[in-house]
Amino acid sequence: MENRALLRDCCEQMGVSLGEKETEQFMTYLSLLLEWNEKMNLTAITEEREVAEKHFADSLLPMELIPQNARCIDVGTGAGFPGVPLMIMRPDITVTLLDSLNKRLIFLNEVIRALGLEGRAKTLHMRSEDAGRAAAHRDAYDVALSRAVANARVLAEWTAPFVKKGGVSIMYKGAAAKEELDAAQNAMNKLCLGARLIEYPCAWGERYVIAAKKLAPTPKAYPRKAGTAGKLPL
User: pLDDT tens for residues 129-161?
Assistant: First the structure.
């Protein structure tokens, strides 16, 4: 992105100010994203303004919902959104980047090295359902993040097991967010989640977040075995 002001402008629209270090990290991230995207399908968005808006700045929208020094997990991270942009702007947090496709994690390990995020970021090659039942990850995080992964009924089951009581699942959503949340009320109740909808005005489209707070431990029956939530959502 030759004009670094483009990224800064996108972020400043949301009240986020980028310094030189953060700007350079985003530029390195962009370069790696476009380079690796020629070898594997990481993103359909490759025009610089769209990447700046719809990947980088978009990932930062609910940054204020993440507590100080939070331990986070990015469920279905794909090319690293929203986890990597959040780590760039929030040096206090740690993020586990979870994905079921190892080739994406090979790319993200290169990103982690290039951006100097070692020690605060790690990749995890597992399905979310398997990780959510594993003792090392169940009830282990302050925040679960998910963006462009599944609808809210499914995401509730995939993400709730990861967070501690009092923690929050942050689901990035578009124009259909209210309808998704309405349809997910049964899932939220069964999974002991209290959800609210937050709108973020953006020049590049309707943006919402479903913030689901964990009110009590996730029942042991959840998550169900891999593939069940998608076929038979709560």
Answer: 999 999 999 999 999 999 988 999 999 999 999
Residue 121 identity (one-letter amino acid): A
> Is 0.90 topped by the overall pTM?
yes
Which is nearest to 84 in space by CA: 105, 101, 103? 105
In the chain, DSSP assigns E strands to 71-75, 94-99, 121-125, 141-147, 163-173, 193-200, 207-214
CA of 200: how far to CAs of 14, 158, 195, 229, in Å?
9, 24, 16, 28
Going by their DSSP bridges, the two strands 94-99 and 121-125 should be labelled as: parallel
At residue 55, the pLDDT reads 87
CA distance 59 to 208: 11
* 177 token code pair: 């967010």
Give the tokens for residue 222.
């959840």
Alpha carbon distance 113, 197 (integer Å): 35
Provide CB contacts within 8 A for 120, sequence distance 6+. 87, 91, 93, 94, 95
Q: Quick one: which of 84, 90, 60 has its CA closest to 200?
A: 60
